[in-house]
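This section describes the prediction task in plain terms. A model, or a person checking by hand, is given the sequence of a single protein chain and must write out its three-dimensional structure as a string of tokens. No templates, partner chains or ligands are provided. The sample shown here is typical of the held-out split.
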Amino acid sequence: MLLKVKTNIQTHQENLWEYKVPSELDWTNIFSQIMKITIDTKLRRFKYKYLMHILLNDKKLFKYGMVESSLCDFCSTSIKTNIHLFWKCTHIQPFLRQINNFLNEKGNTSSDNLITYQSIRFCNVDSNN
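The expected answer:
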């Protein structure tokens, strides 16, 4: 009888994401996509840590006294948070444009928004894949 009752209690991390992202998030789908996207356990673990806000970066390591600076190793202009490192750093922007161009060529489209912050962050892939 206890197994039949499903609770839908959001974790603190899920609440943090919903505060940052204005749209409704389907957490069951997001976590199941981690398993569908790859069979590599290291990539699955990375994605899970990223979603749970437990992926260490220089901002956190500096706070714990483990690195000399919290600045980004690539651009040295901003604090190295996960958002900066994976999305906003000037060194990642050309890479993201190349991926977008590649996807445009393969899909015969001309959209600049194939790769969005939310689609990468939450593994929003087509459920039919």
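For orientation: Residues 36 and 129 are 8 Å apart (CA to CA).
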